[in-house]
Amino acid sequence: MSFSRKLFGFLSIVSVPCFATTSTSQEDLFELSFEELLDVNIELATKTDETRASVPSSITVFNKQHIKLLGVKSAYELMNFVPGFQNTRGDWVGAVPKEHTRGIYLDSGNVLVMINGQRLNESSFGKASVYTPFIPVEIIERVEFIRGPGSALYGSNAFLGVMNVVTKKKDNELTLSVGEHGFAQVALSAITELQNDISAYSNIALVKQRGENYFNGEVKDPLRSQFIELGLRNKRFDLNFRQSVNELNEFINLAGVSPNNRHKSENRSVSIVYHWITDDEWNISSRLYKVTHEINSAGLIAPAEVLPAGDFYVGPAWQSSDLNFVTDFAWRYSDATNVNFGIEISRAKQTEADIYTSYFDYVLGDTYIVPDAYLGEIRTVTNYARFQPLKQDFNSSAVYTQIKHKYSDNLTFFFGARYDYVQDIDKKLSPRVAAIYNVNDEHTLKLQYGESFRTPVSNELNSNDDVTIGNSELKSESIKTTELVWHWQTDQNQIDVVLFNNDLSDFINLVPIDVVGSRFRFENEFSTSMQGVELNGNVTLTNESWFEFGYTQLFDEPFNPSFKRFAVAAWKQQIGELQVSLNANWRDTVDVPGIGVHFVQKAYVIFGSTFVWQPSSEHQWRLEAQNLLDKHYNVFDPRMPTGEVPAAGRQVRFSYSWKF
User: Fold this and answer.
1) How far apart are the first and last CA of the chain?
2) Complete DSSP assignment for 14-51
């Protein structure tokens, strides 16, 4: 074994192998057949080993070979290839990814995002991408999506969907990438065997991008990202450390466009898992992890031209943490019946609630736009009195169970529920029932009913600034979902059709509290329903060519301006040592009438392509392009004066990978 392998492996620590990996996950991309790319097992939706035919939930899974052919940079961009999901810019920080999920386009974390089963959603904003906006695909083994409710297993935030990122644990690979707009990336995955059956691995990715020009060259959208994961494991225990640091400066922040906008976030995690029993009848494991989130973000509120001194920037300097303990029990009661149950205890809190600003009067203890209060820089002011109520504990406990019973060769039932108690805030029961009927070897029908919820976060409960007022009486948002699924599968083809109905209650929104609409209060303002259909499939064209597609049609108008219809298609062709992939993402027109401003973005198509040349099993070259034709379009954000947030243009990257 080479010294480099030993060195990089020795620096590693293990992460939790909570989800199944495919038997072909380590095989080369060119050795994978079409059937192997589709025949993936998934535990995310049920905590039992299921396939696309047998899983009750609507799911989408991408393994690392599939991800390479799609040419994306970050895990969030895979949402554009998932029925019912889309990912765009917009939101409080313009370059932070934002989810559109089954007609809901909100700023509150209605999709639970996890890395190796650890929650990234937290208690201050509730949204994972604020603190972890970039997850590089070079360190990813697979990404699993639940489309629809997941609270019966995962609790709050598993509201409209779940995304779980599984990092690499068995690879020795170095990837170097360069691209347009100053893009550069170095990514390393390494593993080695130590003594006493202990293995060590590491995943490291460093990314830098100068960015494109926007608003007539006034700003760019630069990116700096660092991802480090180190691990040790054997058959009994798993130990893991992870750190992710991201900077998204300039561009848009709090609707202000400025080259001096600032946004830096960090996510750190330490976890340990112990497998108590692993045999044919029982599988019992416990996990303890601590996650810390930090953010320093400030956007331009007013320029120096209209102020007595310099530009006015302001934003949060916050920190939150989550100490979580989970024990999972899996019992094979009989050949026909499997029982899963467990407990989860969480001690989450917002530990810091400071202000990041360029104006502050230390005598009066607040931001005042006067010459003497100008700081000459953007500075963190600690112990800011108006933010101190945000420092709240979110202690919770939960119990859950699921029973899978194979009633006959053709009929299987799932019954499950989870009870969550969030101290001083709310308590929720999230049931789920499903039936899977195999009509024959090719056709399967599924019927599922589930309920999910999202607990309000500290920003909604306790905010107190010049614009928003918190509401300590808020209840959890809730949703009741019914799905009917038809699944067709042959040796080389799969198609799913999903009809869904979502009944949404107690949605939290900002409501004006003064005549001029200058201040707002969070309220459980409304309830609504959303129906739609999702279609996706994979089709073999020849032995060297295959095609995948997805289409989503909402029958109701989306809540907040989003896409009522969208579709995706990808074609892949192998030509000797070369693989070619072309993909297209179509989005329908978004039309938002308003007072003085009428936002219209006509329907458009975004093309992408990937060329992969692999002359040997150790060496691979890739040419990837996103937004291949450099389509210029905008996404809607109600905070912007015009409603417009410019989307990213063409991004071409060239990569070399070496397996050692």
Assistant:
1) 10
2) -----S---TTTTS-GGG--HHHHH---B-TTTSS-B-
Nearest CA among 291, 313, 461, 301 for reference residue 380: 313
Question: How far is Cα 460 from Cα 469, in angstroms, rounded to an integer?
Answer: 8
Note whether 88 and 76 are within 8 A (CB). Answer: no
- Which letter does DSSP use for residue 166 in this model? E
Which of 152, 149, 233 shows the shortest CA–CA distance to 198?
233
In angstroms, what CA-CA distances link 391 with 267, 273, 383, 463?
Answer: 18, 29, 11, 10
Categorise residue 191: left if φ over 0, alpha if ψ from -120 to 50, beta otherwise: beta
What's the average model confidence in pLDDT over 108-133?
Answer: 87
Question: What are 170's two structure tokens?
Answer: 């068995």
Tens digits of residue pLDDT in 25-39: 333 444 444 444 455
Do 633 and 647 form a contact (C-beta atoms < 8 A)? yes
Q: Which two tokens stand for residue 250?
A: 């300039």
Instruction: Find, among 96, 108, 166, the residue nearest to 133 by Cα.
Output: 96
Query: What is this structure's pTM?
Result: 0.91
Residue 289 to residue 417: CA distance in whole angstroms: 24
Q: Summarize pLDDT for 270-286 with one digit per residue, the tens.
A: 999 999 999 999 999 99
User: What CA–CA distance (Å, rounded) separates 26 from 121?
Assistant: 30
Closest alpha carbon to 150 in 422, 451, 448, 582: 451
Structure tokens at 540: 């073999």
Contacts with 243 (C-beta within 8 Å, 6 or more apart), sequence order: 226, 227, 228, 229, 266, 267, 268, 269
Q: Record the tokens describing residue 318, joined without a space.
A: 């916050």
Residue indicated by tokens 């019912």: 84
With a CB cutoff of 8 Å and minimum separation 6, the contacts of 593 are none
Concatenating the DSSP letter of every residue in 213-242 gives EETTTTEE--EEEEEEEEEEE-SSEEEEEE
Q: Residue 149: helix, strand or coil by DSSP?
A: coil
Comparing C-alpha atoms, which of 537, 520, 530, 595 is closest to residue 563? Answer: 530
Cβ atoms within 10 Å of 34's Cβ, excluding its own: 20
CA 535 from chain centre, in angstroms, equals: 22
Phi, psi (deg, nearest 5) at residue 617 = -70, -20
